[in-house]
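ok trying this again, last paste got cut off
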Amino acid sequence: MPNSSKESLQKLYIEQLKDLHSAEEQILEALPKLAKATTHPELKRAFQEHYQQTEQQKQRLEQIGNDLGEDLSGHTCKGMKGVIAEGAEIMKEFTDSDVLDAALISAAQRVEHYEMAGYGCARTYAHMLGFGNHADLLQRTLDEESDADEKLTGLAELTINFDALK
């Protein structure tokens, strides 16, 4: 691989990390609002638990940034900003608690899927650039995001969507 291509991929990798870092910061602001808005105890707990995970995920990104000698802060992930804005609109539009809970899951799953796409790309870049330790950290976060998505699906399919039908 020509050196300039590797440098370009590394630049892309760092940009992806900055984007993910910004996304995690935005999610840390949004999750308490989601937890406050829901009336379903299991959904509230899921949002609160994911807040703790998100703090760890942000720390992992900062660890990677430090390893690369890069400050990941100061960037704004516009994609996550839009996804979160859509979630805020849903919270205003649906006020019935059961329907709101279903809408909150929908908004939260959009966040999870956006993150999974970003972390999957970053993990692949890390592998290709020879940063196996970074790839492992990114995979751990990717696994957590997937688990959170599955947990939300389970809550939706087992109770919350049925409650919204009533």
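PB: full thing came through this time. The chain has five helices and no strands.
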